[in-house]
């Protein structure tokens, strides 16, 4: 009888631990852009966005008043943060500008004209107030005379004094929308560097060319 009671207690504990309703999952979902910007990117492959370690985990993180970055195992992102940020950023840039921006790997037969790389240095709901998204982005154009961009971004979205994970998710979504606009316009502090030389032909490009005709034919 005692063993039966112990087994029942263990099953009850396991059931309570695995109760999915006690775990909240939050989406990264920027609002649909209301404006339309000129297409300055054409076709571009977006590399996987580089995130800080605390922002790339499953748990929604925030900074407490003592400066520590904290999280809760019951408050999770609904998708892998790197994947979600990369796909959402690519889609938002495309929606707002009409450019064809696709997260890697590039799925089309025709290669992209440009490559976009985003390196996030901070992505956090700060103790001082506001969600901050900062870092640098790079746009490379391998074509002769192409403009390569190296620019920075520093975006802050207002938050309540003690924001919950839902408010943090909304603020992060808004910050990504602002970053998408900045990349689409190639805006932000930084510089543009012209590509001076034509790219080295790839092996598949060389071997795809037709062979010259044989002499005497």
UniProtKB/TrEMBL annotation:
<feature type="domain" description="ABC-type transport auxiliary lipoprotein component">
    <location>
        <begin position="26"/>
        <end position="184"/>
    </location>
</feature>
<dbReference type="Pfam" id="PF03886">
    <property type="entry name" value="ABC_trans_aux"/>
</dbReference>
<protein>
    <recommendedName>
        <fullName>ABC-type transport auxiliary lipoprotein component domain-containing protein</fullName>
    </recommendedName>
</protein>
<dbReference type="InterPro" id="IPR005586">
    <property type="entry name" value="ABC_trans_aux"/>
</dbReference>
């Amino acid at each position: 009888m005692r063993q039966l009671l112990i087994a029942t207690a263990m099953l009850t504990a396991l059931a309570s631990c695995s109760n999915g309703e006690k775990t909240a999952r939050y989406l990264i979902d920027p609002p649909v852009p209301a404006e339309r910007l000129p297409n300055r990117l054409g076709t571009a492959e977006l590399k996987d966005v580089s995130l800080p370690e605390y922002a790339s985990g499953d748990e929604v993180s925030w900074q407490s008043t003592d400066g520590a970055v904290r999280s809760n195992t019951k408050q999770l992102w609904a998708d892998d943060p790197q994947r979600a940020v990369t796909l959402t950023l690519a889609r938002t840039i495309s929606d707002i500008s009409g450019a064809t921006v696709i997260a890697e790997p590039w799925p089309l037969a025709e290669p992209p004209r440009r490559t976009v790389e985003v390196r996030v240095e901070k992505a956090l709901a700060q103790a001082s107030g506001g969600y901050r998204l900062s870092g640098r982005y790079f746009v490379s154009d391998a074509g002769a005379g192409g403009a390569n961009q190296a620019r920075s971004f520093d975006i802050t979205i207002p938050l309540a004094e003690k924001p919950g994970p839902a408010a943090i998710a909304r603020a992060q979504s808004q910050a990504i929308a602002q970053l998408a606009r900045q990349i689409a316009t190639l805006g932000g502090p930084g510089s543009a560097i012209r590509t001076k030389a034509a790219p080295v032909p790839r092996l598949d490009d060389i071997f795809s060319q037709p062979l010259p005709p044989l002499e005497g034919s």
